[in-house]
């Protein structure tokens, strides 16, 4: 890390089409968070080996025990804007009244339309250790994951 106050972060996702592929895998984006101004605000930098994406990351609301809201705003090429937010819960289920309150907060304070919000189905989650492959996108780009492609090629030859 360039800045001693920065720390590394990972964003792990399963691709939306992973339920039709006979392999369990995850895609991990690596980046860094650097404190920016007040409490809970950071500059985020996602590395992809070509054009690193930067933006603002914040945790505007949390009770530290049950939930947190995180929000990320990125600008691309000076005119495209992307905003995303997540309501995180330490439990698989959240009280409906509390969830409604947090959705309203995202809608009113951050102008995220309610019809653009959706729930993430976590019923078929796979533990990281159980994944067949873990593709990592970092400052070296996808090259850091290419070694796993030989495993995929080998497994594809085994299937009928």
Automatic annotation (TrEMBL):
Any one GO biological process: response to reactive oxygen species
Its Gene Ontology cellular component terms are: cytoplasm
Looking up InterPro entries in the UniProt record yields: Calycin
* Entries under PANTHER family matching the protein: APOLIPOPROTEIN D
Q: What is this protein called?
A: Uncharacterized protein
Species name = Scylla paramamosain (Mud crab)
């Amino acid at each position: 890390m360039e800045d001693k106050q920065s720390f590394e972060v990972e964003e792990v996702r399963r691709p939306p089409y992973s339920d039709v592929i006979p392999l369990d895998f995850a895609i991990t984006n690596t980046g860094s968070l650097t404190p920016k101004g007040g409490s809970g605000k950071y500059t985020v930098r996602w590395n992809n080996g070509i054009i690193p994406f930067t933006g603002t990351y914040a945790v505007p609301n949390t009770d530290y025990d049950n939930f947190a809201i995180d929000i990320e705003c990125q600008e691309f090429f000076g005119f495209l804007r992307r905003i995303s937010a997540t309501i995180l819960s330490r439990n698989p289920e959240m009280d409906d009244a509390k969830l409604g309150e947090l959705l309203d907060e995202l809608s009113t304070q951050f102008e995220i339309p309610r019809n653009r919000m959706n729930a993430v189905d976590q019923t078929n989650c796979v533990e990281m250790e159980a994944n067949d492959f873990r593709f990592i996108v970092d400052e070296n780009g996808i090259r850091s994951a290419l070694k796993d492609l030989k495993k995929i090629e080998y497994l594809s030859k085994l299937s009928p």
